[in-house]
Each structure stands twice: as C-alpha cells, then as structure tokens.
Amino acid sequence: MPPYDPSAFPPFAVTVDLVVLTVRRHALCTLVVRRGETPYQGRWALPGGFVRAEEDLGAAAARELVEETGLCAHDPAAPPPVPSNGAHLEQLATYGAPDRDPRMRVVSVAHLALAPDLPAPRAGGDANSARWAPVEELLGEDVIAGTLGSADTAGAGEAAGDAEDAEKHGGPEALAFDHARILADGVERARSKIEYSSLATAFCPPEFTVGELRRVYEAVWGVSLDPRNFHRKVTGTPGFLVPAGGTTTRQGGRPAQLFRAGGATLLNPPMLRPEV
C-alpha cells in the first residue's frame, strides 16, 4: 500500500455556526450579528467562527456560545433543572458546498442552541452589531415551512439567489453565506423535536407555568393552541412536568401553579404539531 501523502489533498477550513433560538415577546427569535468585515460586509449573519487547532467541534461550539451569549452549554446527562446560565446545545448539520464561502473552501458544522428569554446581545469579534431578530423577519413564513430544503443540497450560489430575490421583492432581509438555509434547518429541527421530546422546556426558566410552556409551543410552531386541551396533554404526559411546589402571578390574573421539567426525554404520547 502506498504511503499516505497529506499534501495530495487541498486544505480547507472548518467553522461552527450557531442557530441560537429563544422566545422573546411571544415570538421565536434568533441571534444575528452584522458582519464588520468582508465577505458580506454589512450583512446579517449567524454567530460562529473557525475551529481552533486544539478544539473538537463540540468545544468550539460551546466556546462560541459563551462568547456570543454568555451561556454555558447544558450537559444533557445532568439532572434537571437546567442552570440559570445553561443552554441546550446540539449538533444540527454539516454544510460543505464548495462555493459557500468566497474566501476558500470552508465546511461548517452548525449547532442549535435553545435557551429562555435572553438579554440584549453584545457584538464582538468581526461583528459591529448584534440583535435578536424574529425568524419570520429573516426567512419569511414560506421559507420556515421548509422550502429551502436540507443541508448540503444546494450551494451558496443558490442561497445567494434566494436572498437577492427576497431583497428585490421587498421580502425578508438576506443573510450572509448560506445562513438562511442553516437557520431554516434549525427552526425546523426545533419545531419537530418539541413534538416528541421535552425540548420545549429548554425555552423556559427553571420553574414555569403551563401557560408559559404553551406560549413556547405557540411561538415555535406559529399557531394558537387551546389552553384547556394543552394543559390536559402536558400534565397527563408521564414524566413531562413535575410540580415545583409553588405558584406565581407574574402573568397576571389568578395564581398559576409552577412546574419543572420532569425526567422524561421522550414524550409518549407525543405533542403533535397542528395542521396549518
């Protein structure tokens, strides 16, 4: 067998991009930064950066999460409740179209992060501003529904074409690179996973009411849910919620019972997304 020659293969860079989702003012929002350098200078983009030589992918994503939001990645093996500065972090998909970055060949391993209502972000690195943006403002409802497709099925040229069309017709603001595709994939991952897992509680504080949890589902799915049916389903699903032993009036009206996330990771029966 001939010896392996690393120089026979072209070098390329690896980055991590973050789809950081939270619910703010009853709307599903994502963190975006305005790029301060070329390429795509002045465009909004997902936060992220290059993987350092000594890092694995998970460590790079966790570092970027801390730098961009001040949040620590929550260990999924740790028992609830999630720490106040903890966020759910999982690998989303890999994006490697040859022309997705005009500088060089760059493969991005995107990660999805979910956390409760977060404070106003602070820009850093090559970004000159940062904000929480409603996902519908960035993508439009048709894109959120899945018309962009899945990871690695189209190149940056197609993504750029989608962005240019949106700008010409007064549609959603174009994101840099193929970040519209990555964001759409992250939103759909969150929408689908809260059907069969307890992931929706990652959008809630350690103690929350059923009404607050329902508003998470409504924001992520973009629908209105019947309060009584929702209450019956979530409190009747084994291991989903456990009473926290107190009440709150922070939502106004009569005192509402507080709950914590239970030990179940999979919901049986699942919380099926309504047809829209």
Task: Describe, in plain words, how this protein is organized in 3D.
With 276 residues, the protein is an alpha+beta fold. It has seven helices and ten strands. A hairpin with a 2-residue loop joins strand 1 (13-24) and strand 2. The protein is elongated. Mean pLDDT is 83; it is low at 143-171.
List descriptors.
single chain; 276 residues; alpha+beta; eight-stranded mixed sheet; two-stranded antiparallel ribbon; 7 helices; 10 strands; 28% helix; 25% strand
List how many beta strands DSSP finds.
10
Structural class designation: alpha+beta
The radius of gyration computed from the alpha-carbon positions, rounded to a whole number of angstroms, is 20 Å
Distance between the termini: 58 Å
Can you count the helices? 7
Note the topology:
Blueprint: E1 13-24, E2 27-35, E3 44-45, E4 48-50, H1 57-69, E5 72-73, E6 86-95, E7 106-114, E8 127-134, H2 135-139, H3 141-147, H4 156-168, H5 179-196, H6 210-221, H7 227-236, E9 241-248, E10 256-261
Parallel strand pairs: 1-7, 5-6
Antiparallel strand pairs: 1-2, 1-4, 2-3, 2-8, 6-7, 9-10
Helix pairs in contact: 3-5
